[in-house]
Here is the input.
Amino acid sequence: MTLSPRTTALYSASLAGLLLLSACGKHEPATPTGRPAPTGTAAASSKLAPAPAPAASSTTASKAALPTIKQPVAAASAAATPAPAPISVAKLTLGSAVNAEHQITRPGNRFASDEKTIYASVATEGQSRDATLNATWRYLEGKGQLVSSISQSIATDGPAITTFKVQNPDLWPEGKYSVEISLNGKPVAQQGFEISRR
Here is the structure.
């Protein structure tokens, strides 16, 4: 039986199509034919060998990335921290006695003429490395005669108490007085008081 070239071409195309269809859905074997599958320790090491590489590289990547992650966090926390408050005078208290913490223990604004020492306790808040507090004491009768002007330098990281005092070994003249507190040259508090006979 002789086949025409046309028939031969049709048979060849049909055969090629069948071979192509029969190849669909087939999977390659896990191990090539003629080569045995690895067993025992060699098999385990060959299967696990690629796994450590990604773990090592991810650890290295995370270590390298750590400083980059920490820097923005530190910058954000520094930005969130408020700047320290500047020093300010919170309270001025007068009295005739103080304790070891410089707090007035006998407050008042009327003193006897034979009171030897009068104290002014200045409570401050905030922080400062080199603030200067000044207490100016005046006798207000007449022309507001200056009795005393005392300055103290203070350095503090929070609330503090600074005490000023005036002393007179003799009798104080009766009348009205005042003490004015300045912080770095600016008046910030004033308190009047009176001296009279007992």
